[in-house]
UniProtKB/TrEMBL annotation:
Protein name per UniProt: citrate synthase (unknown stereospecificity)
GO cellular component, one term: cytosol
InterPro entries listed in its UniProt record: Citrate_synth-like_lrg_a-sub, Citrate_synth-like_sm_a-sub, Citrate_synthase, Citrate_synthase_sf
Native species: Raineyella fluvialis
Keywords: Lyase, Transferase
GO molecular function, one term: citrate synthase activity
Amino acid sequence: MSTEDPEALLDEARKWWTTSIVDIHPGEIAMRGYPIEQLIGRITFPEMIWLMLMGELPTRAKAQLLEAALVSSVDHGPQAPSIAIARMAATCGPGLNGAMASAINVLDDVHGGAGQQCMEIYYEVEAEAGADGDLAKAAATVVARRKEQGLKYFPGFGHRFHPLDPRAPRLLQLVSEAADRGETSGRFAVIGAAVEDALSQGRAKRIPMNIDGATAVVYCELGLPTELGRGVFILSRSVGILAHAWEQTQQGGRIKGPQAKFLNYTYDGPARRDLPEPDQRG
């Protein structure tokens, strides 16, 4: 491109960033084509999230399911690593933005990734079954295959704290009610139950679906890509992170570590020893 053509240079500069999300001009803001002043006060925040991510406004039923899933994952107590990190960071002086960023940064594969990973399993079961296949058989096949691949802990099932996660049944109830009204297929609720059956086969106690498995049902019913399943979980958990960071800021405290001062850690290194003189070090 010739730098002697100012119009061509300006056109090329405009193409540096391309977006179909927002269009802004002096005195004008449009989100996915909708003037912002028409959206304000007329759509809910979950509807706005859907519009921004998916490009169109959701049906009211989809928005309600998305909202329910977002509400369900907001917080799980200060023992959750991300929440604990937010509170510790708040005592170290970075402000709310730093405390939130510190916490959000740990929401990765191990802590925060189970919902996305469970969605991947559900979509794999759907693909295995095909349009008219046996979902229970497909679930058993996928579970067996994942075990052969070395998967020991199935994301979305079982819980280290709750014998039965109280959030999961309510979300599944909402999905079932939406399916009965014809607002969603209910197919992934069946897949989730089939995976639970396959995991529990031959065990004295069932391995029940947890919150990650239930939100995965919702997000798959809504047709979200798996990566966005994790993204919207992070949006949800950010509310709890903010609340805890703000509460800790109000409570005060300075440089609070992960455990109370009177609780010591476990040291398993060498016993105390004297440093040898230089000529004795070999």
